[in-house]
Amino acid sequence: MSNTDKDKEFYEMADAYIALANKQGKNINQGKVSATFLYAAARFNIFLVASGAASADDFAAKKEDVFDYFMAEYKKMLEEHFADYHDNFEKYMGKKN
Asked: Which of 29, 51, 73 lies at the terminal end of a domain, its last residue?
């Protein structure tokens, strides 16, 4: 699989999650949808880390690195999307600055 295919797959998967959140947001408070999205991501990411650990002690020893990594990645993603929405606010939101 080429890097282009991997990038396409990455964005298709992200779009599928966003589509589900948008669908849920039509009938449920969007804040609740957002909170469940974050909860599910956190739970899955910790499952991923635990799956790769040899023992509970090995898992516990990774805590600081795991927290640093995921928080830094999430911050980068928030910054990227915040800048994108700022630059395209009228286009995305249909509101003028």
From this structure: 51
Identity of residue 4? T
Residue 28 forms part of a structural domain: yes
Amino acid at 21: A
Question: pLDDT in tens for each of the 97 residues of the chain?
Answer: 566 776 999 999 999 999 999 999 999 999 999 999 999 999 999 999 999 999 999 999 999 999 999 999 999 999 999 999 999 999 999 987 6
Record the pTM: 0.84
Range(s) of the domain holding residue 75: 62-97
| 55 vs 67: CA distance, rounded Å | 18
